[in-house]
Design a protein that fits this description.
Blueprint lengths: L11 H4 L14 H26 L6 H9 L6 H17 L4 H14 L10 H6 L2 H15 L3 H7 L7 H26 L5 H12 L11 H18 L5 H14 L7 H15 L16 H12 L8 H8 L17 H6 L30 H4 L48 E2 L14 E2 L19 H18 L2 H11 L6 H11 L5 H16 L5 H21 L3 H14 L5 H6 L9 H12 L2 H11 L14 H11 L6 H15 L3 H11 L8 H19 L5 H5 L3 H13 L1 H8 L3 H17 L6 H11 L5 H9 L8 H27 L1
Antiparallel strand pairs: 1-2
Helix pairs in contact: 2-4, 4-5, 4-7, 4-9, 5-9, 9-11, 10-11, 11-13, 12-13, 18-19, 18-20, 19-21, 20-22, 21-23, 22-23, 23-25, 28-29, 28-30, 30-32, 30-34, 34-35, 34-36, 36-37
């Protein structure tokens, strides 16, 4: 409803008027008040429904009640905020059931309406829902004010009254309940790890003007959050932080300023982590239970059979079935054993809260009190009543005091009853003597779903290392890949530790023979094929070994050579790509490991295979060298030293061709050298034509002007111009051999000419002369010239200046071509 500001004494300043009797008050209309009242009434009704749903929440009814909660009417932030307040209050009051309430929050965070605006991406949208924001805000408020209520009682110098002691206990229970609830939400990723770390830091840090002995509540909360969510936070990425936390906690355990209880709490938490988060005592599940679990516990621990809670079974069990005569008379003492165990006194049952079964069969329950059976007597037909089952146990002893001892007819002698066949006290069949009542007989079979088997905890990092060592030892002895893969399956390594397992496999094979390395590669290939590990896991494992290289090299000097063999086999088997492997070794990291890996691949395959793979990977070899060596000449020198220069044949051409032309500039000699040293597959490459044209132009420039005098280039003599033309004409056969009928390669030759002129600062007329010569000698076709003119690229510098020099000639060429085509038409 819209907010209104009535002109009352409280807000007269807002209206800019002074208060007084003459001020007229604004009174909302009757319809407005009715709307506000209806809205408040509707909200109150919704919150009552939510309270009822939360009171009924159990593991069995979880899905059903979640749907009911979502259908309450979550149509505004106000309703959502109210529901969050109710859930948090329940979680704080009942920390035993924090896990159940955290699961409820997870469901609401996923399915509740979102009143926030659309986020930029889907990931942020999930993190920024209205429910999650309101929940975190409420928990933050509770966390920041965690010790406020407890400190209120601690500041009182006088002894606390029993009522105050109780209130202080409730306040402390809520404080620890909030911490546990935060931890449970963290386990479900509803609260980010960074927030959990911030909470831990806040609890650990020493506050100003606060003595250490007064930090007991914070340290107790710290132990609670570590116990709840510590195992989730204790992973490799956060190991340094966790080590710092526990180092501080270990120091506090020896500080005598702290109370002994807090020091022992800290010590228990430190020992819990040291024991891989496995508690010393057997874990007792005090959380919510299903009815099936409670029945199992009753049969196992107390020997009591609790029938299913449905009307037909209840009627059959207590009234008209084969176990109970239709007209039998009995008193309430028959049920005393069951009643004693599950609450004989009025108002006392098994318990309250989520996951607890109410005692539907207790004689004290209100729904049964009007029934004569549950009042202890049954009419015998003549109007008189008498007590039956005199031989049975009595609720009252001879001193008329209440006996809390269960009836013997409901107790089992555990030494006489097999564990797999629990017994109970039942009523005799019709016709049995009354004196035999209370004898033990086997109950009818319980039709229940089989109990879920408890999954074995996954191995820890240390356990996985030991298991992997054993696996590799057995595998190297047996050489049975299938058996090793089955063993790896049985290990059930967690996903986040798969790279650790592969890391151990790689390290264990470094010093072994080439045959054993091949076996290791076969095992890794089999693990990938079976889907146990991925290429990403393998890359992470290699990276882990690389990080350990400085330490491993002290014991294994040739570790990089051995690692190169394993990496080469993995790339050949297509377990990881060469590009991904090269990415980890950029800027000369672990140099010369990448080159060693290439050498191994040449040995295992051949040059052509490696050349094709290297070209497909599009790896920048300069980046694979240390920064000081990232030059073309130095790179070619290093590759020649490693026998890998075949990967860059054009670099060799660029370096050697000009030398060869200077030795023998005849076309036959040049063509023969190219044919012998350059693969035919490269003859149609643009880079090859670029290098060929550049080498010819550099040779011509050298012959005309050996001293590289800029003035002679600017104003060449007639003799120099003639020599330039003759030299270009001498190279015509070679150029035509590689450029004829290849317009795209001719365009590359023109770009090489453009770059050459640009390096000489575009001497006047040089580019135009060469264009005319190439056109007249029929080395470059008209189509190539026009394509060069229209092409737009930033790859080759000087295009603007080049066009300025030859634009008029290109226009003439284009016009002449059009006229020629018109003449042909006629």
């Amino acid at each position: 409803a819209p907010q209104h500001y009535p002109k009352t004494l409280g807000n007269s300043e807002f209206l800019g008027k002074t208060s007084g009797s003459g001020v007229q008050r604004w009174v909302p209309s009757r319809s407005t008040r009715r709307e506000a009242s209806n809205e408040k009434r509707q909200n109150d009704a919704n919150f009552r429904k939510v309270r009822g749903i939360l009171n009924k929440l159990t593991p069995e009814k979880f899905d059903k009640l979640c749907l009911e909660l979502l259908n309450v009417g979550l149509d505004s932030k106000l309703i959502l905020k109210g529901i969050i307040l109710l859930i948090v209050d329940k979680a704080l009051e009942e920390p035993k059931y924090s896990q159940l309430y955290a699961q409820l929050c997870l469901r609401l965070a996923e399915d509740a309406p979102n009143f926030e605006g659309p986020a930029e991406n889907q990931a942020n949208q999930k993190q920024n829902t209205t429910f999650r924001k309101l929940l975190i805000s409420k928990l933050q408020d509770e966390f920041e004010n965690r010790a406020r209520n407890v400190e209120t009682f601690d500041k009182n110098d006088n002894p606390l009254t029993p009522e105050e002691e109780e209130q202080r206990g409730i306040a402390k229970l809520k404080m620890l309940g909030n911490i546990k609830f935060i931890g449970e939400l963290g386990k479900l990723n509803l609260i980010h790890e960074s927030i959990l770390h911030k909470c831990i830091k806040t609890l650990l840090e020493k506050k100003k003007k606060v003595q250490l002995k007064d930090m007991g509540e914070d340290l107790e909360c710290l132990c609670q959050i570590m116990k709840t969510v510590g195992p989730k936070l204790d992973h490799d990425k956060a190991k340094s932080l966790m080590d710092q936390y526990f180092g501080r906690m270990r120091a506090l355990t020896n500080n005598m300023e702290l109370p002994a209880r807090i020091r022992f709490l800290l010590q228990n938490t430190v020992e819990l982590r040291a024991n891989n988060w496995v508690p010393r005592k057997a874990y007792i599940d005090n959380g919510p239970k299903t009815i099936h679990q409670v029945r199992q516990d009753a049969v196992k621990d107390l020997g009591v059979f609790i029938p299913p809670s449905n009307d037909s079974m209840r009627n059959d069990f207590f009234r008209e079935n084969s176990f109970l005569p239709s007209k039998i008379k009995f008193d309430r003492e028959t049920f005393s054993g069951l009643a004693d165990m599950f609450g004989q006194m009025p108002g006392i049952g098994i318990g309250t809260g989520p996951g607890v079964i109410q005692d539907h069969y207790s004689p004290t329950m209100g729904r049964h009190r009007t029934n004569q059976i549950y009042n202890g007597h049954v009419g015998n037909g003549n109007g008189s009543s008498q007590t039956q089952f005199e031989g049975g146990s009595r609720l009252y002893n001879k001193h008329n005091q209440i006996s809390l001892r269960p009836s013997q007819s409901f107790m089992l002698n555990k030494n006489q009853v097999p564990k797999l066949q629990p017994q109970m006290t039942v009523l005799p069949r019709a016709g049995s003597p009354l004196g035999q009542l209370g004898l033990k007989t086997n109950p009818p079979p319980i039709q229940e779903k089989p109990a879920k088997t408890i999954k074995k905890a996954p191995p820890t990092k240390e356990e996985l290392h030991k298991m992997t060592e054993t696996l590799m030892t057995d595998y190297m002895n047996s050489k049975n890949t299938d058996e090793a893969v089955n063993t790896a399956k049985e290990m059930k390594a967690p996903k986040h530790l798969l790279s650790e397992m592969l890391n151990k496999i790689l390290v264990s094979s470094l010093e072994r023979s080439d045959e054993d390395k091949e076996l290791t590669s076969s095992l890794i290939h089999a693990l990938c094929t079976e889907g146990l590990v991925t290429g990403e896991n393998l890359l992470q494992a290699f990276q882990g070994v690389l990080d350990q290289c400085p330490n491993i090299e002290e014991e294994i000097p040739l570790v990089k050579s051995y690692l190169a063999q394993l990496a080469a086999r993995a790339i050949i088997a297509d377990l990881m790509s060469m590009a991904d492997w090269a990415h980890q070794l950029e800027n000369g990291a672990h140099f010369p490991l990448f080159l060693l890996c290439l050498q191994q691949m040449v040995k295992l395959k051949d040059r052509d295979w490696l050349t094709d793979l290297f070209q497909q990977s599009k790896i920048n070899m300069l980046k694979m060298l240390p920064e000081i060596d990232q030059k073309k000449d130095r790179m070619l020198e290093i590759l020649e030293g490693k026998g890998l220069s075949f990967l860059f044949p054009l670099m060799k051409l660029e370096k050697e061709l000009l030398k060869q032309i200077k030795v023998d500039p005849s076309p036959q000699s040049i063509y023969k050298w190219i044919k012998d040293n350059i693969s035919p597959k490269l003859h149609t490459e643009k880079d090859f034509v670029n290098i060929l044209m550049t080498s010819f132009l550099q040779y011509i420039a050298y012959e005309i002007n050996p001293t590289d005098d800029g003035e002679q280039f600017a104003v060449p003599s007639k003799e120099q111009l003639d020599e330039e033309k003759q030299l270009l004409l001498s190279f015509k056969p070679v150029m035509q051999k590689f450029l004829h009928d290849h317009v795209n390669l001719q365009v590359s030759a023109l770009y090489a000419l453009q770059v050459h002129c640009n390096t000489k600062a575009f001497p006047k007329g040089m580019l135009l002369r060469y264009f005319v010569h190439l056109y007249d000698m029929e080395i470059i076709e008209e189509e190539a010239f026009l394509s060069w003119k229209e092409d737009v690229t930033q790859e080759y510098p000087g295009k603007g200046k080049a066009l300025f020099q030859v634009n008029q000639w290109l226009t003439w060429l284009e016009t002449a071509e059009e006229e020629e085509s018109e003449d042909e038409d006629y």
